[in-house]
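Lay summary. Proteins are chains of building blocks that fold into shapes, and those shapes determine what they do. In this project we predict the shape from the chain. Here is one chain we studied, written as its sequence of building blocks.
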Amino acid sequence: MASSNHGIVTVLLRNTENQRLRDVRTIVEFYRGDGRKLQGFIRHFENHREDFRLDAFPLLPKRVDVKPVQYKRVASFFRVKPGERLLVDVPCFRDRNANWRARFARWGDLGSGHNDLKRMLASSPNLELKIRNPSQIRPLGLFTRLTYDDVDDQHLIEGKAGLLNVYSKMFHSGVKGVAGRPWMRGVQEILRIQRDRIVALIDEDTAKLIRKLEQNTGADRHYRGDRGNLDGHRKNIPEQFTIEEMHCVKTTDEVGVLQLTVAFAREANQKRFVLDADIDEHAHLLLHFGDFLRHRITGYGTHPYEVHDLLHHSIKRLNLEYHLV
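And here is the predicted shape, written in a compact code that computers can read:
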């Protein structure tokens, strides 16, 4: 029972799929608003929740930092009143360096929301896997049925997770004035998959839609033009294409930002429209600059398991057709 100068703070843990975390060793630290540490604990959250008794006065904002094993450190701010029992529900994001494994749905069990994915892969007989570190291109061929299911190499596991991440984000990103799923409808063939992007051939109408969204700033509040790093995306376009012009848009989400970069190109005198589709962690320029800096230092780019959590956090009732164990 809380005294006249104390409150009870109940910390609840959940992952981004809204599953409660139980039996996980967790560091819990409380801080004042000015950053001074108040208390620190190690708890095991046997029933996904733990109670903590804290001084209520002074009635200033406080912070709790939570670090479960295999998850990132996350902070949550709160105020607790004397005699109050306060629930603090903390969403926990997986640590990319922990020992997580992707468990995929089998080809025959993919739901109706992934019919376009099956169509796209069935139309991609020359699919490649690009690996950044060490840099290499690995031919996959037709990535369907048994080939889709028979994945045990870590590079391919991460590339497959990246494919499902980008597909799901494209599937859930509509365009004002365009019925149905314009990004799905426009993909003709997937050329490459990576842990952080896909490269595909798209039709001319879809390429022109991306250019229109880039040039008509504010026409669709869900998208904004972004020409700041076109040279950086140029290297993602396979070498057989001669690029004539490039255009880029991003969704205006706070996290899990879809970026669509299209190259108007030529291949043996034939017009081609090559899409480079990837997902950024953050929309905020400074936060994204931090992401970019980390990618430059590590050389690994955005990790698909981080994107997995961001997508679950930002899209309701999401089915990626894989989960992490």
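What the prediction tells us: The chain has two domains: 6-92, 102-324.
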